[in-house]
Amino acid sequence: MSESSLLNQLVESLRRLPGIGPKSAQRMAFHLLERDRDAGRQLAQVMAAAMERIGRCERCRTLTEHVRCHLCASERRDPRLLCIVEQPSDIVAIEQATHYEGLYFVLGGRLSPLDGIGPEELGLDRLEARFKEPDLGEAILAISPTVEGLATAHYIADLARGSQLRLSRIAHGVPLGGELEFVDGSTLAHAFAGRQGL
Amino acid sequence: MSESSLLNQLVESLRRLPGIGPKSAQRMAFHLLERDRDAGRQLAQVMAAAMERIGRCERCRTLTEHVRCHLCASERRDPRLLCIVEQPSDIVAIEQATHYEGLYFVLGGRLSPLDGIGPEELGLDRLEARFKEPDLGEAILAISPTVEGLATAHYIADLARGSQLRLSRIAHGVPLGGELEFVDGSTLAHAFAGRQGL
Fold first, then answer.
1. Cα–Cα distance, B149 to A115 (Å, whole number)
2. Class of residue A196 by CB neighbours under 10 A (exposed 0-12, middle 13-18, buried 19+)
3. What is the pLDDT, as a whole number, of residue A164?
4. Which of B38, B46, B75 to substitute to test the interface with A, most A CBs within 10 Å?
5. Residue B107, Cβ neighbours under 10 Å: how many?
6. How far is CA B25 from the centre of its chain?
7. Which regions of chain A are under pLDDT 70?
8. Which positions in chain A touch B42 (Cβ < 8 Å)?
9. Best mutation site among A3, A7, A33, A77 for testing chain B: the one with the most B CBs within 10 Å?
10. Which stretches does the record call C4-type zinc fingers (chains A, B) (predicted)?
11. What does the DSSP assignment read for chain A?
């Protein structure tokens, strides 16, 4: 294939998708061109619209093409509960796995001063304002238990101090179905220290 | 995620790519939206152009956005050699792995009367016309050794009969690095029958 051909450009563009190597990108390009141009046209159209129109929910900061996402706009969600997550994808995971019926707040990352990610970048001023809303009864931290995640959780706990709010975090420990010998040491130590009465 | 959201549409469109399941499609969508909108915009643009403008080379039937592909248009390729393949992707594989310097002809499939794929669908009339070109010295069949592939090869051999053309096919047998015990029976039988003197 000559370097500048449109086919090559298509393969190169597909390679920028996460987890796609040169072979897969080539297979995708040939598949679309030879067997499913409709899928290619549709993907091009939806992709262009999505990149252009999807922004952040004004209330919870998740990805949406509306001013407010469908969860914040819903009247069936419980406004007394607020779950704080790092990424929009965490919302999908929680919605699929749990029966949580409250609202969300998306940080968009973890505090990391060295990378220039401070409280402002995570919208913590807006979160603090929400902590003061009278409706809110409990805030649940669902942040990854990494060093930066724990620092972020501490910072948020400080914001909530002095309010009537109940602050909790999801449990960390040995995953269900995980065999003890394959669990990393710090998870096991954490699970041990956090043991609960039976 | 509500069913009709643009984000959902993006995930669904990405799922139509070969080998992409729901989890990967979601990961791709979030990655592009949160970290690399440029890649998304570029993919949308190149994809739309490719689906619109890429057609078939008038001479060899491979995929190209030009009237003639860069191989057929090249003066450095040997016009005495013609390699007959099933798919455009086979050309990429042969170009990468071999030092073949001749031209190609893409069938676009194998003879399969039950699926409505006859000689016309494979462009065999055009191939027959090329067999009569005085320049051509050898035609090399690089078709998969399946039942339909072998039937296609036979049909093409009939087309070449009576001409001065030398017709060959690439060797079939045990793959390099393949251990005998893991090679399927018919390949092994084929390799045995086609043994060569040392």
1. 57
2. exposed
3. 85
4. B46
5. 24
6. 26
7. 1-4
8. 13, 16
9. A7
10. 57-72
11. --TT-HHHHHHHHHHTSTT--HHHHHHHHHHHHHH-HHHHHHHHHHHHHHHHH-EE-TTT--EESSSS-HHHH-SSSEEEEEEEESSHHHHHHHHHH----EEEEE-SS--BGGGTB-TTTTTHHHHHHHHT-TT--EEEEE---SHHHHHHHHHHHHHHTTSS-EEEE---SSPTT--GGGS-HHHHHHHHHT----
The class of domain B6-53 in CATH terms is mainly alpha
Q: How far is CA B66 from CA B4, B20, B102, B194, in A?
A: 38, 30, 20, 41
Sign, CA dihedral A125-A126-A131-A134, equals positive
- The percentage of chain B sitting over the pLDDT mark of 70, rounded to a whole number, equals 98
Bridge partners (DSSP) listed for residue A90: none
Mean pLDDT, to the nearest integer, of B62-72?
96
Residues, chain A: 198
Bigger pLDDT: A20 vs B177: A20
- Whether residue A51 and residue B36 make contact (CB cut-off 8 A), yes or no, is no
* pLDDT of res. A56: 95
The reply to whether residue A16 touches residue B42, judged by beta carbons under 8 angstroms, is yes
C-beta atoms of B17 and A39 within 8 A: yes
Domain A6-52: which CATH number of 1.25.40.10, 3.40.50.2000, 1.10.8.420, 3.40.50.620: 1.10.8.420
Is the domain A78-169 a CATH 3.40.1360.10 member?
yes
Cα–Cα dist A117/A122, whole Å: 7
Domain limits, chain B = 6-53, 78-169
Report CA Rg, chain A.
22
Kindly report, residue by residue over B80-111, the tens digit of the pLDDT: 999 999 999 999 999 999 999 999 999 999 99
| Other CB atoms within 10 A of residue B135 CB | 11
Nearest CA of chain B to the CA of A98: how many Å? 14
B13: Cβ contacts below 8 Å, ≥ 6 apart? A39, A42, A43, A46, A47
Backbone angles phi, psi at B158, to 5 degrees: -60, -40
